[in-house]
Amino acid sequence: MTETVNAASQTSGGTGKGLTLERVFSTPGVHPYDELTWERRDVVQTNWKTGATVFEQRGVEYPDTWSVNASTIVTTKYFRGAVGTDVREWSLKQLIDRIVVTYTKAGVDHGYFATPADAEVFEHELTWLLVNQYFSFNSPVWFNVGTQSPQQVSACFILSVDDSMDSILNWYKEEGFIFKGGSGAGLNLSRIRSSKELLSSGGTASGPVSFMRGADASAGTIKSGGATRRAAKMVVLDVDHPDIVEFVETKAKEEDKIRALRDAGFDMDLGGVDITSVQYQNANNSVRVSDEFMRAVEDGTDFALRGRKNGEEIERVDARDLFRKISEAAWACADPGLQYDDTINDWHTNPETGRITASNPCSEYMSLDNSSCNLASLNLLKFLKDDDTFDAALFAKAVEFIITAMDISICFADFPTEPIGKTTRDYRQLGIGYANLGALLMAMGLGYDSDGGRAMAATITSLMTGQSYKRSAELAAIVGPYAGYARNAEAHQRVMRKHQAANDTIRTLAIADSGVHKLATQAWADVVELGKANGFRNAQASVLAPTGTIGFMMDCDTTGIEPDFSLVKFKKLVGGGSMQIVNQTIPRALRKMGYQPEQVEAIVAFIGENGHVIDAPGLRQEHYEVFDTAMGARSLKPMGHVRMMAACQPFLSGAISKTVNLPESATVAEIEDVYLQSWKLGLKATAVYRDNCKVGQPLSDGGGTAKKDAADAAEAAAAVETKVIEKVVYAPTRKRLPKSRASRTTSFTVGGAEGYMTSGAHDDGQLGEVFLKLGKQGSTLAGVMDAFSIAVSIGLQYGVPLETYVSKFTNLRFEPAGLTDDPDVRMAQSLMDYVFRRLALDYLDFDARSMLGIYSASERQRHLETGSYDLPPEETGNASELIESGVTLVESTSVADPAETDEVVETKDTHGAEQREIPAQVHQGKAHTSAELLEQLTGTAVDSPLCMTCGTKMRPAGSCYVCEGCGSTSGCS
């Protein structure tokens, strides 16, 4: 898309005739939709606990290039209109048209285009980029634009609160309206006087921490945009506030309370019913630190805490002691993060208007109080050419076009409060960013924590922001600079020169990044020149957001600036369920690095089996770093995350939403070092997460339980105990079956698929072999099942307990699945689920099966009548009468205590037949979180929690995490 500015418009007064646009992405005479193949899909979601259908819309229309995940998320989250009515959107075309038509009309109405033909080009190009997943607007655009709702387009808001009750109560109200619109907000509470200061009446002030309780409760009752995620918010307090220690320790103390309640049997998961009994869980907390404080930490000197009314010194504290308290709290519960005040304001384009005091919930948007920012993110992998080089020229054109659309949105947008609306219209802050950086670097054969990876990321970020400000200066010539530019012109131009100077310091290492850098250098030269002549249309241009939900909408492998989370991922299938596959970026990276097809195949197979590349056949060790991930055997070091952020930060108007992941064994001193080095490297904000530090675990690499608390954090950091352990090696021996052995053959039907299972036992009755017949002789399915049977049989003979196989293979979901002809196992989620439930019933005793939640029909009927599973059969009735009468016994998946949930729930299945749900006995080791539940069901450690809506494993997105199956998030973007 070659775009030129009419020569007559090159004035700073905004009297131009509009943009003249030329097509680059779309084809003249062909609508973007007509270039794609469209298909109809059914989107059905069920609650993983109850099995109830929570969403169903059939016959929705999507391009065949869109994954099932993407279409599910868009249908459930972004389609408007009541489900089941004629007004409900049913096609991606309707959704995109709703957005694009609104943007195009606003562009025409406000003089952005030179001619109607240019407006048509704008409409087609924007449509092409969206439908082909090259970029996405933030969620509020999809929620609101083109509907009867207020046209709220901003995802990020910064509020302000003063030291008065009117202001504090108004803060509660404003946050509520923002959460209702599907967005998040942040603010700085440092203007509120501390609990160590007096009121005018003579009493003692409550302090900001006390008012945080009310705001937290309000946020907990409002779900963003009416969706399933919680409200997202950020609370900031300056490091020199007298209540800083109380603020720092709030969430750490609440985490202790959460552990105590969990151990007492309460459901304290992130989506648990009892989590609302604790406070401060709906906000991210950050301490705003100054250079003065950080230097005092380095020097080991005192630091003054000052009153809010007149700045008098209230007390002096040891800076290192306070810094240690901050790090101990972050070690214990991941809060607070740090925001570096002097660095933030040194890159501020509007200092004459006011300082930057706060950020949005994920810390990427930082600007004036009472302001907002709308976001959009590009899918970097779309710009990787067939020769595995980055198409910088095409990327630059896309940036120009998208930043134009983002600026247009401010012309018609609605805002939750008039002060926010006025500031946003006067300063027009934008937040263009990107996703899929981790996947792009891997595909190019570049390690995330390498000089080459950082150089490529830095040049792309520099080009993106430079091209954005260049287009902003061009728009200023057409429709005028932002209203607050005149008083901030000198400062704004100074920051542009700082960006340009930072770009000059990039040291490229290859032809690929040098080509990108060349375009970035030209862009910044144009920015400085055009800015002097025209001013700028936008006070801010770029941020790096988490891109959680919209990242999945674009089918991105990685979110935001994040590295790949792991080398294998779960892919949702059209017929339901999911399968684990090796990331498709890996084969491309191997081919890029010169590996032959047979080598690629062997390495991919190794990764699929082991989840890492260590000792992969034929893979050279110098290439290991390319496949380093956020979690796993070769996880990135904490400073690897920090160094990548430091490489990109000088080229962003705002900051970066990213969490520095640390292992569970990390010490307080290591967290201190991350915070200190982040300040020295020029980051604007840093957040950390130590694995397993929270009960509601968003990220895990080992499945362990965090047993330390903040009180012994210092001791854990300092004490190192050396133990000498004698290593004993046990070699398994095979217990072969006798030549003649007892066996049984079971015929079964699962979801209409017929099969036969023959099982043989040792003389003592223990299972020793299994053979499955599910396909015709010679078919692929028959061969696979033969191999599977042999593998299981050998494992049994070498001593693998049947209980282990049952815990591994029950609850696996894939087709065929559904009703069976077995009265003891009426429903099966897959063939494997049925087979191992049947084997458990045939060969395991009652106590072993009860630990796994597997019961026969008679045992379940016994529980219905007596409240117990294990009474003698002669004292109970039989389930056959119920079964013959058409009642299906459905075992509940609830994890509640049977003593508390012995009520029988009667429902109807899809055929109208009566069902009765029977509470299953819980495991003796009660699961209090979804991650613990998954570990108990599978018998293995898990690396992420289950989605509380659909049960799919979640993935991290910046400082939040997102469900790939249904798009539910923990609160961001």
Question: What's a quick, concise take on this entry?
Answer:
It comes from Nocardioides plantarum. With 973 residues, the chain is an alpha/beta fold. The chain contains 29 helices and 28 strands.
Your description of this structure?
- The chain is of the alpha/beta class and 973 residues long.
- Among the domains are: 567-628, no CATH class; 743-938, no CATH class.
- The chain is 38% helix and 15% strand.
- The protein contains 29 helices and 28 strands.
- The strands form nine sheets. Strands 5, 6, 7, 8, 9, 12, 13, 14, 17 and 18 form a ten-stranded mixed β-sheet that branches.
- Helix 5 (165-180) packs parallel to helix 6 (208-220) and helix 18 packs across helix 19 (597-610).
- The longest helix is centred in the middle third of the chain and has 29 residues, at 451-479.
- The chain is globular and about 95 Å long.
- The protein starts with a strand and ends in a 10-residue tail after the last strand.
Question: Top keywords for this entry?
Answer:
29 helices; ten-stranded mixed β-sheet; alpha/beta; single chain; globular; about 950 residues; three-stranded antiparallel β-sheet
Write the layout of secondary structure elements.
Layout: E1 3-5, E2 19-21, E3 38-46, E4 53-63, H1 68-77, H2 92-109, H3 116-131, E5 135-137, H4 139-144, E6 156-158, H5 165-180, E7 184-188, H6 208-220, E8 233-238, H7 244-263, E9 284-289, H8 291-299, E10 302-306, E11 313-318, H9 319-333, E12 337-340, H10 341-346, E13 371-379, H11 392-412, H12 418-427, E14 430-435, H13 437-443, H14 451-479, H15 485-504, H16 511-534, H17 549-553, E15 568-572, E16 578-582, H18 585-592, H19 597-610, H20 638-648, E17 659-662, H21 668-680, E18 685-690, H22 713-718, E19 743-750, E20 753-761, E21 767-773, H23 780-797, H24 802-809, E22 818-819, E23 827-828, H25 831-843, H26 846-852, H27 857-866, H28 880-884, E24 888-891, E25 905-908, E26 914-918, H29 930-938, E27 954-957, E28 960-963
Parallel strand pairs: 6-7, 7-8, 8-9, 9-12, 13-14, 17-18, 24-26
Antiparallel strand pairs: 1-2, 3-4, 5-13, 6-13, 10-11, 12-18, 15-16, 19-20, 20-21, 22-23, 25-26, 27-28
Catalytic activity: a 2'-deoxyribonucleoside 5'-diphosphate + [thioredoxin]-disulfide + H2O = a ribonucleoside 5'-diphosphate + [thioredoxin]-dithiol
Biased composition (Polar residues): 1-12
Organism: Nocardioides plantarum
